[in-house]
Amino acid sequence: MSAQEVEVAMEELLLRVVPGLAEQWQGATPDAIARLERIAGRPLPPFYRWFLTHMGQSMGPLAYPTFDFSVQHVLDCYAQEWFEPHPRFLLIADDSKEMMPSPLFYDLDTPTRADAMVTTWEAQADEDDRYDQFETLHEMLAWSALYRFRVRKMPQTCSGTVSGDDPNLISLIEPVMRNLGFTQPISTGPYCGLYERGDAVMLCKGMPRHGFDQARSFNLGGTTPGALRKILGELATESSLKIKVAEWAPGV
User: Fold this and answer.
1) pLDDT the model gives residue 128
2) How far is C-alpha 233 from the chain's CA centre?
3) CA-to-CA distance for 47 and 252, rounded, in angstroms?
4) Which partner for 177 in 77, 111, 127, 195 could form a disulfide, CB atoms 3.0-4.6 Å apart?
5) For the chain, which residues make up each domain, given as ranges?
């Protein structure tokens, strides 16, 4: 997808799913964005520039509990030398957790679909101990919006893992979900799957570059336990996937 297609799809998804976002998000100033780009030492990923112009000052109801994505806070972190400028990694969100904070960085050497890899590592940890979270920032934001404002609002949810021998598990999940009437609000890569239907939502996630290609975690929300079991049953019978449910909420 082109940068413009990614941005249009993301804006449609976020404004549809997140209540009140259009009235509450606030973009950063061009000067603040330019200052951050100078710290990066290279052009910012196109999607990140879109994100900053729309939510670089405030993410409104999409804001994370402990992550601060605001440009001014990121600039302050660099100004106060909490983080040193790096030719590869750019801080995009500080973490306010008291125990083992894990700020988020862009891996600018891993551009993907007009965006870049989002990675994290705990304060004081070695750079090699980082954990890649999402292949792109827009997948991270879309996953969070759908989980918080759709999955968690459903009367019944469950979570677990989907596994199989095929390294591209998403390619096995997608046709089954499509046949069940689900649509994909945005295009995703091999580590993330987002599927919506009026009465159900399923989110799949894997950690890039960590050797877990044979499994994806999933979160599924819907109207009844029976509806969710039917979806999982179709995935198990119409593909070579193995489904393991770890938790039901409420319990069944």
Assistant:
1) 64
2) 26
3) 41
4) 195
5) 3-140, 152-247
For residue 97, what pLDDT is reported? 84
Chain position carrying tokens 């996630």: 205
Domain 3-140 has CATH 3.40.50.620: no
- For residue 250, whether the previous peptide bond is cis, meaning omega lies within 30 degrees of 0, is yes
- pTM exceeds 0.90: yes
Q: Are 155 and 224 contacting, i.e. CB atoms less than 8 angstroms apart?
A: yes
- Contact 48/116 with Cβ under 8 angstroms? yes
How much is the pLDDT for 98?
80
In whole angstroms, how large is the CA radius of gyration of the chain?
Answer: 19
Superfamily of domain 152-247: Sirohaem synthase, central domain (3.30.160.110)
Block means of pLDDT (10 residues each) for the chain, 252 residues, are 90 97 97 98 97 97 96 97 92 90 93 95 63 94 98 97 86 95 95 96 86 82 96 94 94 72
| Distance (Å, whole) CA 152 – CA 159 | 11
